Amino acid sequence: MQITKNFRLMIVFSSFVMFGGFVNAETAGCPDVQRSRNIFDATSIYKNSRVAIENADDAHPVTLIMYRPIDGECRREEFARYSIEGSAPTIDSLFFFKLHSQVNIFTIISWSINNRGAGTYGKMYQIYAYKTGADGSLLENKKISESDAMTGIDGYDGGRQSRFRYKTAIDVKRFLRNKPDATN
Fold first, then answer.
1. What are the tens digits of pLDDT across the range 61-81?
2. Centroid of chain to Cα 80
3. For residue 110, what are the domain limits?
4. Which of 72, 126, 138, 153 has a CA-to-CA distance to 168 between 20 and 30 Å?
5. 60 and 6 in one domain?
């Protein structure tokens, strides 16, 4: 009897570790939303989906993963990796925002920079957005990530003070509401 009880506990614990928490029928084995573990509801992108911030490899220490139920299983799809750019990347914010009639997943990424000899130090910021492509996969919205407004340094750049104005989700949303074509 003791062996059976321990075996059941081992299965429950293994399921908990594998999926980041207990699962429910709606998400077909996908992890439950757990903000404290960086797993967020992404139903505005795909029905019953989750987006997770996970650790990756040494060159790209942070990755974004979409979990979504397809054909009774949970499909795990990596859609973004952030590389070391002098320092490890930090996701300061992950949020959803409708832009040009389509919901996008936005991330505000920062890297600490310190090149005092060149007079450049502080934080470098880059804002990325991801939208659903024609084939249903998530693609980088290059109109956002390649916009000059969506990247910058907060600190000193070449010895001159520099201020990046879009460090929060509220700042980015306000900018895009007021100037929706600024990223075209």
1. 999 999 999 999 999 999 999
2. 8
3. 84-184
4. 138
5. yes
